[in-house]
Amino acid sequence: MKIILLALPGTDVQQIGTHLASLTGLAFVDGQELTRKTWGRTPGEIILEYGEDDFRALEQKLTSHVLTELAGAEGGIFAPTSGAFEKRPQKIPEMTYVYVRQDLVELARKNGLNAPRSLALGTPNATFRELAKKRDQAYSQLADLEIDGNGKETVDIAHQIACQISPNAL
């Protein structure tokens, strides 16, 4: 089983991936953490220092590397940085794309639209709404499975994913 977790910023996809890995026994790669380990900075810090275009180029290289590794593995879970699949319309057939959908009201409740995030370079509310619209369309096109994450705990979301992807694995 090879799973790509897609979600808008603030969805707690890292926690979902950690829980899902625990439930399935699969290795989990967190794009945010891998970015920190690889470049010694968070995505937001890279964007502030080098600009959005340079970060997106680095993001694509890192994502391609992880996808290549995952393609050759028996299985695994990858939660890329949230923009990694915004412009990547082609699916890799052997991977299952899961979009954990949360609406803006839910994300605002959890994180606040003015929380310090890599995307908040301007009016946070307007920036986030524009970003969410673009990514929602891209993620919906890629998704093999969409999970409604509104009002749910991350462990419950992970359990729902595991049950729907591989009901006999639990």
Task: Provide the fold topology.
Elements (H helix, E strand, L loop, with lengths): L1 E6 L5 H12 L3 E3 H9 L3 H8 L1 H20 L4 E4 L16 E6 L2 H8 L12 H19 L2 E4 L5 H12 L5
Parallel strand pairs: 1-3, 1-4, 2-3, 4-5
Describe this structure in words.
52% of the residues lie in helices and 14% in strands. With 170 residues, it is an alpha/beta fold. The longest helix is centred in the middle third of the chain and has 20 residues, at 52-71. The chain is globular, with a radius of gyration of 15 Å. The model has no long low-confidence stretch (mean pLDDT 85).
Distance between the termini: 13 Å
Tell me, what's the shape? Answer: globular
Rounded Rg: 15 Å
Helix count from the secondary structure assignment: 7
Strand order of the largest sheet: 2-3-1-4-5
Helicity level: 40-55%
Largest sheet: 5 strands, parallel
Order of helices and strands: EHEHHHEEHHEH
Mean pLDDT: 85
> Strand pairing plus helix content: what structural class?
alpha/beta
Uncertain stretches of 5 or more adjacent residues: none
Number of β-strand runs? 5
Indicate the proportion of strand residues: 5-15%
